[in-house]
């Protein structure tokens, strides 16, 4: 407006240069009001750190700092976190760094070795457990947990798209070239090996239905996944995940967009058709609410 300065909304007092205050009524986490509020923003930029270095022998690891944010939002110290597709063990490492206990499950024993290498390199004496096997069965062995954070295989896209693991010669690990062919395993219960997208969704749904039985009431579950193409057609994977999780009893709490701004841009459809470049993941969170 000409001549008039628009009034900026005033920053809440507790968000000005103070660490914020912890509310003793807080039953969800150990955060101050200010820390809590900052994590409710619907987009985050992915945060890489030196701790991620060892993870890149896995084709699709989480970044530790991203998972630390989630664990600090949804749990308190000493609580138990489950990741039924734990891969290189990032969720367990994030849990350890925040004095929580992690339980991870993965089909591929080689990824447990990778997790152990990472833990050793960080000098952590872990309290977490890494179970090898199919989550559909292994979940029966665990007790109640306080939070589930996970990312399943993205259907069979590694088999279709990947040229293998990254060599670490580039400036940034994420941007480094890949060498060799890599997918998770040859096992038939590996969710990355289902040919049909519907079969992949059904297998994921069965595991998450079981996981629901092991989650304490009023606690949260986060699934991290991006949209992708199936048979060259763009699919709203997020929509399918929300549907199958809701059918399993989880209540949708919201999606945080995790921006990945340093990925390369590919001219997929150019110059004939629009094709999207996925430069974000969806962090989709649910709550278990039973009366
Ligand atoms: C997207 S990756 C998870 C990566 C992990 N977030 C990390 O930071 O390394 C998915 C993982 O699911 C595992 N997986 C696939 N099918 C499984 C099943 N039925 N039970 C347990 N793990 C499975 C794969 O071996 C793979 O490591």
Secondary-structure topology with pairs:
Blueprint: H1 33-39, E1 43-45, H2 64-74, E2 80-83, H3 90-97, E3 101-106, H4 109-122, E4 129-132, H5 135-138, E5 145-150, H6 157-161, E6 165-166, E7 178-179, H7 197-213, E8 215-225, E9 228-230, E10 233-235, H8 237-247, E11 250-259, E12 280-288
Parallel strand pairs: 1-11, 2-3, 2-5, 3-4, 5-8
Antiparallel strand pairs: 6-7, 8-12, 9-10, 11-12
Helix pairs in contact: 2-3, 7-8
The structure holds S-adenosylmethionine (SAM).
Q: What features would you describe in this structure?
A:
This protein is an alpha/beta fold. It has one domain (31-288): Vaccinia Virus protein VP39 (Rossmann fold, 3-Layer(aba) Sandwich), CATH 3.40.50.150. The chain has helices at 33-39, 64-74, 90-97, 109-122, 135-138, 157-161, 197-213, 237-247, and strands at 43-45, 80-83, 101-106, 129-132, 145-150, 165-166, 178-179, 215-225, 228-230, 233-235, 250-259, 280-288. Strands 1-11-12-8-5-2-3-4 form an eight-stranded mixed β-sheet. The protein has a two-stranded antiparallel ribbon with strand order 6-7. Helix 4 links the parallel strand 3 and strand 4. S-adenosylmethionine is lined by residues 55, 58, 60-62, 85-88, 90, 105-108, 111, 134-135, 151-153, 184-185, 189-192.
């Amino acid at each position: 407006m000409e001549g008039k300065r628009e009034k900026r909304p005033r920053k809440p007092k507790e968000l000005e240069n103070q660490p914020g205050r912890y509310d003793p009524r807080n039953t969800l986490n150990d955060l101050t009001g200010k820390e809590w509020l900052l994590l409710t923003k619907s987009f985050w930029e992915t945060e890489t750190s030196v701790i991620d270095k060892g993870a890149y022998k896995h084709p699709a690891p989480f970044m530790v700092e991203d998972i630390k944010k989630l664990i600090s939002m949804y749990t308190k110290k000493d609580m138990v976190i489950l990741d039924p597709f734990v891969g290189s063990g990032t969720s367990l490492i994030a849990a350890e760094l925040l004095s929580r206990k992690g339980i991870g499950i993965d089909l591929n024993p080689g990824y447990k070795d990778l997790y152990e290498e990472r833990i050793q390199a960080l000098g952590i004496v872990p309290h977490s457990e890494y179970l090898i096997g199919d989550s559909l069965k292994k979940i029966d062995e665990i007790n109640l947990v306080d939070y589930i954070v996970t990312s399943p295989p993205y259907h069979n896209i590694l088999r279709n798209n990947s040229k293998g693991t990254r060599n670490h010669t580039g400036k940034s690990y994420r941007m480094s070239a890949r060498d060799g062919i890599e997918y998770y395993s040859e096992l038939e219960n590996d969710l990355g090996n289902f040919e049909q997208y519907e079969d992949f969704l059904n297998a994921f749904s069965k595991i998450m239905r079981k996981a629901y039985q092991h989650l304490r009431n009023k606690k949260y579950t986060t699934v991290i996944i991006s949209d992708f193409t199936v048979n060259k057609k763009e699919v709203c994977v997020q929509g399918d995940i929300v549907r199958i999780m809701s059918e399993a009893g989880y209540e949708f709490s919201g999606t945080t967009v995790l921006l990945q701004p340093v990925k390369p841009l590919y001219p997929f459809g150019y110059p004939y058709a629009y094709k999207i470049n996925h430069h974000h993941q969806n962090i989709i969170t649910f709550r278990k609410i039973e009366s």
